[in-house]
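Example record used in the benchmark description.
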Amino acid sequence: MAAAAVRSLGSSLGKNLREIRVHLCQTSAASKGARDFVEQHYVALKQSNPDFPILIRECSGVQARLWARYDFGKESSVSVDNMSADQVAKSLQTLVQSKP
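Model output (structure tokens):
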């Protein structure tokens, strides 16, 4: 399911967004879905969007969160704590398709 969501994004990340950041903890159970998403889908996203900045920020004890930066520095974020990799992909898809 997450693979389908990632494929549907294709090379469309740069249309509405300027940057995506994934904040996660390397060890917490709450960040497991975010870690799994990065392990399974980061390469495909980067191959589809080679010049688009996708940043992975690891910090001990931090709440798992997706950040999207749009034009003019506007940002939006969504918590992905305790989500599966599929749910993280859906959250990313929602951020990509939304307008700030």
